[in-house]
Write a structure and sequence with these properties.
Bound molecules: 4-O-methyl-beta-D-glucopyranuronic acid
CATH topology of the largest domain: TIM Barrel
CATH architecture of the largest domain: Alpha-Beta Barrel
Oligomer: single chain
Number of domains: 3
Distance between the termini: 45 Å
Radius of gyration: 26 Å
Largest sheet: 8 strands, parallel, barrel
């Protein structure tokens, strides 16, 4: 029975360690579940499934367990019992039972998955005392899925959501999707693309969405929709979609009410407005807050929220896109309804392989700012390059904004601890599709996993998460796990080296895959390659100091100090902030040109090292997964050379210098 990757990290392979197994069996007499709702039912079913596979024993679920011992018991706690947050859980041994307790059914579900994770890793029962609660309230995936089944920036097949079959046919895969997410603590999902179709606001689609929501609910996941801001006009037949127009406001109120009739626990709306051509309040001379607050008002009678994206920039060749979101949103601080969360991409530009943190973080103390990461590998080699993203997420969350002095990390802004936000959010743009293994590249599963784990607890480290994922998904052989951990942890730096070293950026036109640094025409003046990298006969990089766009001024002085001076700017950020002369000597002792070449070449060669690590793990891997990754690594090697050569040849048209001795010239 080969492993085709469908089960993700929920493999539940039989426990092989006999002594650990016998310890587990002491608690496998029954699953004690008090009378409960459907989330606890899911938890008990999952536990039954897991124990069945892990221990080879079919364990009964019962609600008459008083006085019994030798089982795993679910217990709902009251506020008097514990100060633990509502979604948190605790797992302890007591009275001969293993008790999973929480104030909520959702917490019981998370505790159940934590216990199953513990058992999958064959960790001891002795002294078991696990407790955890989420640091962030809304932990969600954003799907950029279109009604026709395509996925914007999706590289793992077609959409999971089969709109043409819904609501009658409910694909069993929806439940597996929900299980996978719940196992990480994800509690929300936005089903459709932020470049939204108004169709999702029609009754025809609302009932389809409701059928999906019925599955999600069983796993504690709320369903959200992206909305097309001009829907009152295009769908509702009104003359305008002006957010201050009473008819428009009434239309949205009614729309929200209509949705709640079908989906009583509906999560809310996600909105991309006045961004990349999408309609928005500015079309009517209004501000973002007018649009967001109008929608928030429609949600007033309900639990739902409005998530308003801050991903905005103008088609202006002379402006610096880096500064746009800060310029538009900071003046709006304090103007948003409390039901609104502003969702900010981790970096100021667009999910580049490495970006400095967005200067919006910390600069809107009166507005809850959620963070948006991209799990799908739009700029990270789609589904053929192995790039473990946890270090990207971690790097941003750990960045110090200095807004309230040292230690004001992005994580503390996002989790609400710095500014006391009541509503906190972490979102990830999903990398799932209908590929049998969900993510195309088997190692990309780790990115979904890492996002979920970090959204629950941003203090976990990239390495911890990698080791855990490998143990659950690939192998528990320590040597093999060591090789794969090494590969994963270095993969992002390697990619950066052959793709965008030293702080180059590359969000140019089109599919965002091929190297085309020469591209100087696009459908917008800022959608060219040259806009971003600024190569010329003198040097390379974007001057964002006072002599250039002065984007640095959007950061606190302590941060400016790190990046202001080209002699002191850490090399990974150099070309983000400086236009550097080709012959400038860097801290490595090499000139800029030599350093670039060194990175491009060692980066591309390091893919061979990745291949070696993977091969060393081969004896411990499922053959199907081994081969899949090995073949993708071959593609990655070929494409890394392609990136290297494209950059080097292009940059040589400016530097007029050969590649340094020791490196073969590009073909
Ligand atoms: O990263 C860019 C993508 C667009 C995307 C946009 C956004 C959904 O290239 O495809 O549109 O960002 O985040 O809105």
């Amino acid at each position: 029975d080969g492993n085709d990757g469908y089960r993700l990290w929920l493999n539940y392979e039989p426990v092989r360690n006999a002594s650990v197994k016998s310890e587990y069996l002491k608690y496998a007499a029954f699953i004690g579940r008090p009378a409960s709702g459907e989330i606890m039912q899911s938890a008990s079913q999952e536990l039954q499934l897991g124990l069945g596979k892990l221990l080879g024993k079919s364990v009964n679920i019962t609600n008459s367990f008083a006085g019994k011992s030798g089982g795993i018991v679910f217990k709902i706690e009251t506020s008097a019992d514990t100060a633990q947050p509502v979604e948190g859980y605790r797992i302890q041994l007591s009275g001969g039972n293993m008790i999973i307790s929480s104030k909520s059914e959702q917490g019981i579900l998370y505790g159940t998955f934590a216990l199953l994770r513990h058992m999958q890793m064959q960790l001891p029962v002795k002294g078991l005392n696990l407790a955890s609660s989420p640091r962030v309230r809304y932990r969600m995936l954003n799907h950029w899925d279109n009604p026709d089944g395509t996925i914007e920036r999706g590289y793992a097949g077609q959409s999971l959501w089969k709109w043409y079959e819904l609501p009658e046919r409910v694909d069993p895969r929806y439940a597996d999707y929900a299980r996978a997410n719940a196992s990480l603590g994800i509690n929300g999902t936005v089903l459709n693309n932020v470049n939204a179709s108004a169709r999702f606001m029609s009754q025809e689609y609302i009932v389809k969405v409701a059928a999906v929501a019925n599955v999600m609910r069983k796993y504690g996941i709320k369903t959200y929709l992206s909305v097309y801001f001009a829907a009152p006009k295009t769908l509702g037949g009104l003359k305008t979609s002006d957010p201050l127009d009473p008819q428009v406001r009434a239309w949205w109120k009614e729309k929200v009410a209509q949705i709640y009739k079908e989906i009583p626990d509906f999560g809310g709306f996600l909105v991309k407005a006045n961004s990349e051509g999408e309609p928005g309040p500015q079309d009517y001379g209004r501000i973002h807050a007018d649009g967001a607050n109008m929608l928030a008002e429609a949600f007033k009678p309900y639990d739902g929220i409005v998530i308003w994206r801050a991903f905005v920039y103008k088609a202006d060749p002379n402006a610096d896109r880096f500064k746009a979101a800060h310029e538009e949103f900071v003046p709006l601080d304090g103007k948003f309804d409390p039901k609104v969360i502003v969702q900010v991409k981790n970096g100021p530009i667009d999910f580049q392989p490495r970006e400095p943190f967005s200067p919006l973080f910390g600069n809107m103390p009166k507005t809850p700012l959620g963070i948006e990461f991209q799990i799908t590998q739009e700029y990270l080699g789609f589904a053929t390059h192995a790039v473990y993203e946890a270090p990207i997420f971690e790097e941003c969350l750990d960045s110090d904004t200095y807004v309230n002095g040292a230690g004001s990390t992005v994580a503390k802004i996002v989790d609400g601890s710095l500014h006391g936000y009541e509503r906190t959010l972490i979102a990830g743009v999903a990398n799932t599709g209908n590929s049998r293994n969900w993510t195309g590249h088997p190692l990309a599963q780790a990115n979904w996993y890492a996002f979920g784990r970090l959204s629950w607890d941003h203090q976990l480290t990239s390495e911890q998460i990698a080791r855990e994922w490998i143990a659950l998904t690939l192998t528990q052989n320590p040597k093999a796990s060591g090789h794969i951990t090494a590969l994963m942890l270095r993969s992002r730096e390697i990619y950066v080296d052959y793709n965008t070293p030293l702080g180059l950026s590359r969000p140019w036109m089109g599919v965002h895959f091929a190297p085309e640094p020469w591209q100087n025409k696009g459908s917008r003046p800022d959608w060219t390659a040259v806009y971003y990298h600024r190569a010329d006969s003198i040097g390379l990089g974007f001057d964002r100091t006072a002599s250039g766009s002065n984007a640095l001024a959007q950061y606190r002085p302590e941060v400016q100090k790190q990046w202001n001076n080209p002699d002191q700017t850490p090399l990974p950020y150099l070309l983000w902030f400086h236009h550097v002369r080709w012959d400038k000597k860097l801290s490595t002792g090499r000139t800029l040109w030599e350093e670039l070449c060194t990175r491009f070449y060692t980066g591309a060669d390091s893919v061979v090292w990745m291949q070696q690590q993977w091969d060393l793990a081969k004896p411990s891997l499922d053959p199907q997964i081994y081969t899949d990754v090995a073949e993708r690594l071959k593609v990655q090697r070929r494409e890394a050379i392609w990136w290297r050569d494209a950059w080097v040849l292009y940059l040589q048209t400016f530097t007029k210098q050969p590649v340094p001795a020791g490196f073969e010239p590009p073909k």
